[in-house]
Each structure stands twice: as structure tokens, then as C-alpha cells.
UniProtKB/TrEMBL annotation:
<keyword id="KW-0479">Metal-binding</keyword>
<feature type="transmembrane region" description="Helical">
    <location>
        <begin position="424"/>
        <end position="446"/>
    </location>
</feature>
<feature type="region of interest" description="Disordered">
    <location>
        <begin position="1353"/>
        <end position="1393"/>
    </location>
</feature>
<feature type="region of interest" description="Disordered">
    <location>
        <begin position="535"/>
        <end position="554"/>
    </location>
</feature>
<feature type="transmembrane region" description="Helical">
    <location>
        <begin position="1041"/>
        <end position="1062"/>
    </location>
</feature>
<feature type="transmembrane region" description="Helical">
    <location>
        <begin position="1151"/>
        <end position="1172"/>
    </location>
</feature>
<keyword id="KW-0472">Membrane</keyword>
<keyword id="KW-0460">Magnesium</keyword>
<dbReference type="InterPro" id="IPR032630">
    <property type="entry name" value="P_typ_ATPase_c"/>
</dbReference>
<feature type="binding site">
    <location>
        <position position="677"/>
    </location>
    <ligand>
        <name>ATP</name>
    </ligand>
</feature>
<dbReference type="InterPro" id="IPR008250">
    <property type="entry name" value="ATPase_P-typ_transduc_dom_A_sf"/>
</dbReference>
<feature type="binding site">
    <location>
        <position position="737"/>
    </location>
    <ligand>
        <name>ATP</name>
    </ligand>
</feature>
<protein>
    <recommendedName>
        <fullName>Phospholipid-transporting ATPase</fullName>
        <ecNumber>7.6.2.1</ecNumber>
    </recommendedName>
</protein>
<feature type="binding site">
    <location>
        <position position="703"/>
    </location>
    <ligand>
        <name>ATP</name>
    </ligand>
</feature>
<dbReference type="GO" id="GO:0000287">
    <property type="term" value="F:magnesium ion binding"/>
</dbReference>
<dbReference type="InterPro" id="IPR023298">
    <property type="entry name" value="ATPase_P-typ_TM_dom_sf"/>
</dbReference>
<feature type="transmembrane region" description="Helical">
    <location>
        <begin position="1179"/>
        <end position="1202"/>
    </location>
</feature>
Amino acid sequence: MAKHRSGFAALYNKVLNFNVESLFARHPGPGAPRVVFFNQNLPDSYFDPKGKPKKEHVYPTNQVISSKYTIITFLPRNLLEQFRRIANIFFAFIAILQFFPEFSTISPGLVIIPILIVLSITAIKDGYEDVKRHQSDRHVNHSQARVLAGGDWVNPNMNGRKSRTFVRGIVPRRSLKRKDVEASPATKQDPDIEYDRADSMEEGEHHVFGHTGENVGPHWHKTRWEDIRVGDFVKIMDNEPIPADILICATSEEENVAFVETKNLDGETNLKSRNACPALTDLHTASDCVSKRNAFSVECDRPDTNMYRFNATVTRNEEKFPVDVQTVLLRGTVLRNTDWIIGVVLFTGVDSKIVMNSGGTPSKRSRVERQINPQVLINLALLAIMAVVCGIADSKIEGTKYSEGAPWLYGADESSDNPRINGLITWAFALITFQNIVPISLYISIEFVKTCQALFIYFDYDIFYAKKNQPTIARSYNLSDDLGQIEYIFSDKTGTLTQNSMVFRECSIAGTVYHGDPEEDEDFKKENSAEIVRDASNDSSYASTSARGDDPAVPSAADATIVKLSSGVLKHFRDERLSQDLARAVEAEPDSENAAQARSLNGFFSVLALCHTVLTAVDPATGAIEYKAQSPDEAALVQAAADAGFIFRGREKEKLLLQTPFSKETERYELLNILEFTSARKRMSVIVKKLDDQDGRLFLLTKGADNVIFERLKAGGDDLKRTTEAHLEDFANAGLRTLTLAYKVIQDDEYEAWSERYHEASTALDDREGKVEAVCDEMEHELRLLGATAIEDRLQDGVPETIADLKVAGIKIWVATGDKLETAIAIGRSTNLIAEESNIIIIRGSDHPVQQQMIQAVEEFFPDSGILDEHGIVTRAPKSPSTESASAFPMRRLSTGVRDIVGDNNGDRTGGFVLVIDGAALDHALHDDDHKALLLRLATQCEGVICCRVSPLQKALVVKMVKDGLGVMTLAIGDGANDVSMIQAADVGVGISGEEGLQAVNSSDYAIAQFRFLKKLLLVHGHWSYARNGTMIVNFFYKNIVCIGVLWWFQIYCGWSSAYVFEYTYLLFWNSFWTIAPVLGIGLFDRIVDADVLMAFPELYRYGRERTWFSITSFSIHMLDGVIQSVPIYFIITYTYFTTTSRSDGYSIALYEYSTTMVFAAVIAVSLFNGLNTNVWTAWVFFAIFIGIIILWLFTVIYDAISPGWIVTNVYGNNHYLFTSAYFWLSQPLVIAIAILPRYLYRAWQLGYAPGDLEILRYIRKTQPDIDMATLRSESLRSKPYASSRRRPSSHMSRTSIACSSVDNLSLDLRRTQDPRCASRTDMSTGIRSVHRGFDFATEEGGVAMRRMQTNLSERRQSSRNLPSLRQSSPKRSLRLFTSLRRKKSPTFKKED
């Protein structure tokens, strides 16, 4: 029996989870490896004997479609989706049944109209939604890119045909086919044609405008993205998106380097450097690309989803050259800081990596809709039982009465007319009689209500973004109630939580903290409006000093007088106190009291201005310097130094130019070495030599993580270390990203010896990276602390407050980002995801097994959770010493060299835990079911989870893991193409129309402009929609069960013949006119509480998370209520009328005379009962409650008065007996009161003796309508101090200028920082436990640009190994930084430190 039950359950689940899109989705399977040919014909092996290209050599188009339907698939796919509703199958069956004469009630044509209306309305809504998706797809597919054409150029590679989409099929548009474009000469005025400027080709420049010559030669033709084919040459200009996966042939920059922004793929804001394929760097012009002499082929591996792997080989002149991801630009990235690149298309459309990481558009159904199916099954089971009972009873009665000679059964012994056949017919007719137990109008009502709810969202001005004139749009109308049940939110970081812009907020210099002047919004906007516009345009066409410093037409950075805001930096750093200190420092005498502070200020900002890889550019229009950085972090640091007067004026090969307030002339430094930043080193250093006749010392300038710098500091100066450490904790607690700065002076002989060791390590064949790291570490010791910086990664408006309120609402928030771990943690802190007292657990993909890290985390932090017992991982026997040593790293404390930070029991904290896991660890965990289950259980023990370095596909897998593993409602929100798969995998997908394009919006269910709008979307619209829809549906079932109950009780008195007690018209209009308005009123106008109450008290959202408003329990209660209410309605009225006749003539009453009284009583009772279930009675609710009753009265009066001369009815003249009867007037109030009395008493008791939060707040609003709910909440929080202690700072962190030095308040800071209960950060892969102080620094690791700089430095070292300049220096020199404070005075060297 159990096997049969389990088999049925499996079959039911299979049917329930049937995926319609799987029938219509194309499953091409993994693509085959390909060879793409250029300027040569395809080999004969690419064709079959008939001369047609083989299927595996026909590549997909570049057309990307996120919509669901086409003209051909719309009807079958939409019908299949709609018939996933069990009720629709039932309605169709009943309609078909009534086509047979034995079961006909009214015209068969009229019977099928309701189901056709339901299907049509839903199909129109779905079609409209899909048309909007097609329009969005059209916007992307019709973007333009420059493609090689003319000059007898032919692309020999074979490409498939474009799909005829829904919009294309309806509105065909004439356009030239590709071969027509290539064959037909363009006119001279064709704006889509661009030529290269041949006369400037040697200078590496391009001209983008056509000239007056004949346009038949090689040129670039602007072509739609969807028409780009594999094997095309394309030319991409600065700030243009990449249309397909392309191989770089040549670029406008030195050494064919290009810079690309990848935040649309991996969420990282820093630019990545890419280089051209060495074999193709001579293809600088369209003529070069067309030339038959430049024939080559590219052999590619099969397309895959790995964003960080690309294997191909270029074959040219029988030589092979390797191709990897460093020479490829992927679709979805944007070209930056590079005038142009020329490339060849290798993968298009569905074969491109970003599209492969995105799934097909799913057919989503709301949870409420899915829950209706089992409830409909329950009602169908009741219907079947009722029909069987009627059939059996009718058959038995006919058999008994026929033998007794009942005259109405005369002749009932034929094959087509006998008790058995009649019982079967009665059974079928009973299905028709009681069909309203599953109301067809319910689905029409749901569609109508959800459409209106989508309009309510659209017209809500609170979630309208006036800056972009953008409302919140519901792209999927049927998911509004899901917004009120969200339990997990998965969010992207870049562009979703942050603005991709940095602000240098604060700094600590020699123990003094500078907070920066507070922002003046209006002045700030006016002053920086140009910079903000500049940032939005990202116009990077200015001259780079490294690339075009010798161009006389370009202004020199050395002569520029203005420094404008860099791209990605929001504002200048200004601090009045800092300006005063700098002014005093400039005038300070070397032996004065201010000399030490002067040296610290000079050294601090000199490190900021010199320790970086930033390039300078000059705006030819304004002559202003602009910094070009690979990451906005570096740009903000160098910008802050320039704001303080330390202006970096560019590079002249390896010479760095710096203007400082301490010198009238530009200082020059020779860059000797760059000890580059890596995630393992957590620091960056440069070694520079000051080029000065009086001062030619060597300096090591370093910036990095506080713990890494502090453990490398020179002994002594503990007071400064403690003060800086306290400031770092302040910065970190405010959610700022910190860096610690230090330096040291290098003796000449020390550098000589070290340089030899560094050269040997950098040229080693074995373990080069390890040896270089070891040599770098030798130099980076005995450092002197300068201070620390604090940068704000500017959040979107209201992000911290929104996340804090969503957490209060009980929603767990996971962040999934492609950014590195430190950046993800920093954003977690600034957005309230990680509280001040939260303990961070880090799991990395490393040599230490991921499963072992998770097991160790459970044992260390959650020993009583029982997770290991559940998974059978618990150690069943005591561990042997050998087992213990081999199993996991022991936890150990990390000392900064200042003091012990973390206690042994630091993990056992009341602050909760946040899990941070990287993509490599996720890859291991998600590919094994046991590991996945363990990860899920560990994650559920934590307050939040941050997934960093994850691919788009991993984002989707994480969402599915939580959704399927926990059975919870999930929401994913993002703004880029890398978020599409996550948005599609979640129950509800929200797209933000940000700077990263519209890919996320095109695939989303809801489109918003700002993350903060999510709060009202969920807490108000979602909660309202769920409460309204859930209450409406159960009341819908209730009102129909009342009607069915009355019909059922009548069967006792009609021989179970399935006859109607009502006149059929009343039954026909039951769901159309009499009782439809009250439930629609609930669905449209009911409010559990007002919007401001829901916003002020996010805790109320738990009613939605706990599925209060719609469940089997509430369904059963309302069904039982309906059955109970049908009893007095039927029996009291029946026995009232039949006890003594109500007629004055003494005749007995007719059936419709007393059954019409039942109709009135049932409609009024149902309407008032629905009113009792409505929380707010507005004018619209009053109208909805009473309009059905009024229509019933008018209809009865008019319908009963229609004479047979007009229409023959069964109730003509009923008014004469109905309204003159005292029974009619007296039974109405009595029956209605008895029917709704139980629910009324329950509601009265609930409000008076057991009120919930909602009832209390409604009462407060009723009695005190003017009270501000936000004030009420803040007062309640003040009465519970601990409740508000975990609230983090707001997104606009207001800073005020502090007149006194932070040293004055040092005692307070130190008491807090020395608290042994400080939250910890535990890296399970290494066993190191430390305190997080906000360190974060984003830059490309090992990129092409860095390798180029290192190569240049290495070549220079090779040519000057004897270092003559160093030996000419003075043997005795001060170890202080920049002792000469003013150039007008001779330097005074001091021996002491």
C-alpha cells in the first residue's frame, strides 16, 4: 500500500512540476569545436555530398531572445500553460459534457463561452507581457556595431537564420539582407559607413567619418547586433558595449592593450586589461582586414559557461599562436579608456558565454496559484462524492419505486431507460448541478485583480524615480501575491546596492583623524554637476600621458592648472582643518613643533600620490587633468591627494611627476620597482628614487590591509599604532573601506643587494611567484606608520535602511557577487548585512577541502545544532591524535603586533554569524548532494550569506539550492546581464534599470529604478496583494459552498435527482452579479493596515512569510463556515414556508416562491460575511458589498414581472406571492443573523480579548488617526535599547567637522576597541581568526597593463645593473621622509628617527 501511495505521490509531483518550457525550449546541446576562417574558403569537408553545409558548421545568429512565445508557439504553449490549472481541465470537461442532449441545461454554444473567456483573457494578458519582452529584445538586438564591408570582403562562415519573433511576425519590417548590403554599393551620404583615416594610420589613429570618395572600398558599416555573424571583423569604439565574443586583433593603444569594464559579467568595478593576439596585430585598418594576404583561421574549443576560460589557436602562415581569455572580449563587457579595437567574431548569440550562463525564460506561477490546485482537487473530490451519492440514491429509489408501480417511472425498464442507466445519468448531471463548487469566475477574478494590482504598483508615486521618469513596472502580472511571502532575497552588489562610485571620506594621519567637511547638497550638485555628467558619459577620449605624451596637439599634464573629478569618483575631498594643518606645515621650520606633523602630512599624501598605477589624461577642451585608473579605489586615493595639493602630474616613462605644497617646482621620482597587489599579499608597494640634487634617497611606499601592515611595522610608536587602530575600527564600523599607509627609507647598499635577489627571483624557472613573494616580503619590513584612509563605496540611496528593515521583517538576505572577498565583506558592512557584532565565517576554495572547512565551522560555531548528526558526519569514536592533526587546521589567533585582539571563545557571540563563501568553494559544494545539503544547513544557521567570486551560473545554482532545498519563496534582484540566470531561477525576479543595461530588466518580473523601492514593493504592495488575494480566494470558495450547500440539502427532498432548487437564472448569475462584487472589493480595496503602518513596522511582514492569509487551514475553515451557514438558510426557510402556508388563498406554495427567499437570504448573508472579512470599509467597499444585493432586488422585480408574451419564464407572477408574504420579510433578518453570528462572535472576541498586532495597530489608527506611525515605532524602540543597537548608519553618512583631535577622545576609543567581545572574522581555510577593520582594495591582479609596466622596469634594470646613481649618494642620510619641508631652505638631516 505504501508503495502505491509513494508511486501516486511521485506521479502527482511529476504532473505538478511539469515544465511547459521544456517542450518548447530548444536543446541544441553542447556546441561542437569550431574553426573560423578568414579571407579563405571553407574546406570541402564542411559540406555534404549535396553541397550543403553540415549542421555542426552552421553557427547560431547573434539574435538573443528573452521572450517565451513566437507566432507559431503562442497558442499551443499558452494553452498548455493554462491547462496546468486543474480547474481549467474540469471546466472544459463540463462544457463538453453539456453538448450532449441528456445533460443540456442551456444552449451548448453559450456553455462554452465562460471557459473561452477565461482562456482568452489570460492569453491576452500573457501575450501583452510577451510583446513587452519582444520590444526589449528588439532594443538590444537592434543596437548597432561597426562591421567590415566592401572591398570584395566575403565572410565564408555559415550562419543560421534569425528567428521570426512575435513582434516581427505581427509587424514585419523590410530590411536589407546581409548579402544585399555587401553586394550593393552604398551612397555617398550613407551615415552608416565609416572609413579609416589612412593617412594617419602610422600614428595608430582612426578616423570614424566617411570622406567624399567612392564608398566601394573596405569600410566599416553600422550593422544591427542580430546581424553580426561568426567570422565578421568588427570595430568597437571607446565606451561601446561588446556585441559578441570576439578575439582582439589590434587596438589604438601602445603594445595593443585594451581596457574593458566587466562589471556586467562579474560585478567588479575595476577595469581589466586585455591585449591583442600577437599574430594579428598588423590588422589596423579595414584594408588590412580585407586583404587576401592576411588569411588565417581560429580553432576554438566548444562553447562553455566558464567565464574565466577560453582556449583557441590562431593559425596564420602555417604558424600557430595560442589564444586565451586575456586576448578575448566577451559579450556584455564595455570598452573603456581605449579609442578603438578591431576584432573577429568567434561566438554569437546563444553560444556567447553570457547567454550560456542565462537560462530560458521560465513560465512562473505564483505560490497561491499553485496552492489552489490541491484545494480544487479537494473540491473535485467532494463533487465526485456528491455526484456518486446522487447517482446511487437515484438508482436505488427508482429501482424501489418502479417495483411499487410508481407512475412517473412508467416504461423505465428499457436498455436506454432503467434505474442503472438513469443513476449514471443522474451522476453526470450532478456534476453539472454542483459545478460551482469549483467556480470558473474565480480565475477571471484573480486575473482581473492581479492586473489592477500591477496598475496600483505602476501608479504609486513613492516608488516612481522622478530623476529618470521611471515608474515601477510589473512585467509579470500573476506574481503580485508572491511579493508578500518572500523569505530569501538574493542580491547582486554592483549597480544594485552600490553606485559604482567612490568617495574619499576620512583619513587618519599621525593619530589625527580628518572627517572631511559635511556635504552641502545643493552646493555640491552645482559645483560638481559637470563632473557628474562627465561620469555618466564616460567620455575617455582624452589624451593619456603614457600613450600620447609626445603629441603636440594635446595639452601637457605638467602645465595643467585644474584637476577634475575622475570617472567613478563622486566628490572632492575637502577638510578645513586639514587645510589649516597643511598651511602651518608648509611654513613650519625643520626644528619647530609642527615639523613632525608636517613630515607626516607630506609623507601620507606623497604615498597616496605615488603608490599606484594610475595614468593621467588631459581634457583638450578645458586643459584639466583627469586620472585614469583601473579601479575607482585608486582613482579616489589619487584624487584625494590632488585635492590636498599633492597633484600627480603623470609619468614620463619611469619618471613620476608630483607637485606638492612643500615645493614650488614639480618633484620627480624614478620608479624602480612595483611590488604589485594580490589577494594573498593584501598590499602594494613601490620603490622610488627621488631625483633631486640635494636629496636622492630611495623610498619604499606601501599601502595595504591593516593587519598586514601592522605586523611589518618597526618596533616602537605604540601610541600611534593604538590610535590608528582605533580610527580603523571607527571607519570599519561606519562601513568604509580602509587602507593603511606606511613607508621606509632604503639604504643604497641594502637596495643593491635586494635588487639582485629580486632579479634572480623574477627570472627563476621554478616557483617564480613564490620566490618573488619571498623577496618582496624581505623588503617590506621595518615600516613606519603614516596613517589610514577610509573610502565610501557610495551606496544607492536608502540601501542600508532598506536592508535593515527587510532583516527586521524576517527576510534573509544573501549577496551574490563576482567581486573579490574583501570588497564583498566591505559592502556587507556598509549595507547593514553584516552588523558591528557579527562574526564572519569564511570558506574558500583552497588546498584545505571545502567539506572539511564546513564541518569544522559547524563544530566550532554551531556544536549544538545537530547538523553533523543529520548528515552522519558526527565522529562516532574519539579521534586519534593522527586523525586530529590531519583533519583540519586548528583555530589560531592573529596578532597585529599591538595587542591580542580576539579571545579563545570569540566565535561564541550573541552578534550572530555571517557566512562568506567564494566561487571556488561553491563549485565543490554544489557538485555533490551531501556537500550541498551541508552547506545549506550551515548557511541557515547564519544571519546572512555573501557569495563572492561567483559566476552567473553559480548565482542561479545557489538560488535553486535554497528554493528547492528549503521550499521557501525566493526573490533575486540585479541590474546586469550576469544576474539574468539568478533572476530567472528565483520565484520572483526584480531587475534594476541601472547603468549596466537592460538585460536584467528584460528577464525580470518586476522592474524598479532603485533598490530602496524594494521595501515598499514587498512590505506594502506584496503584503497587501497576498492578503487581498488569499482572503478573496477563500471567500470565493466560501460563497460558492453556501450555494452548493443549499442545493445539496434540497436533494434530500427531490429524490436525489440532481434537480435545482433555485430558478436556473439565479444560479447562472450567482458568480456573475449577485456575489462577485464583495470578493472583488476584498481583492482590490481591502487593507490589512495602512501603508505607513506596514512601512513603519516591518515586523508585520511575518504574516506573509508564515502564509497566514492563504492555506489549507483557512480554506477548510471557510468551507466549513459555508456548509454551516447553508443549514439555517435552507432548513429554517423550508420549514417556515411548509409548516403553514403563507398564501391567503390557502393553496400550498410553489417551489420558486420559497427558494427565491433562500436566494435573497444567501446573497445577503454571503455579502455581509465578506464584509466582516474586510478590514477597512471604504466607500468602494460599501459599494462592493451592497451592489450585488441591489442588483438582485432589481432583477427579481423586473424578471418576475416579464409576461409570457415577451419571454416565457417559470417565475412570472412570483412577485405577487413573494413580497406580500410575511415569511419573506421575517425570515431574512433571522436567517442572516443566525448564519453570520458565529463569525461575528469570533471577530468580536478576537478584537476584545485576543487582539494581534494588526488589530492593535488598526485600533490605534482608528482612535488616533493623526498619530505618526514612524514616531510610534521609534518610541517603542527607545523603550527597548537593545532592539535599536544593531541598526547601522544610513546611506548618507553625515559627517561633521570635529574641531578637536581624536587623540583627545582616545581613552573612549581604546576602551571600545579593547573590548574582548569584538566580532571576529574566521578563515576556515587557514584557521586564522582576526578582527575585520574594513580593508578593501580593488585592482586587476596580474593584468596585461601591470605585466607591461613590470617588463619595462625589468628591461631598464637589465640595461643598468651596476646602479651608478645609487653609489653617488651620500652614505649618511636621515631616515625620515622628505625632511626638506620648504625648498627655500637647505635640507637639515637628523640622525634620530
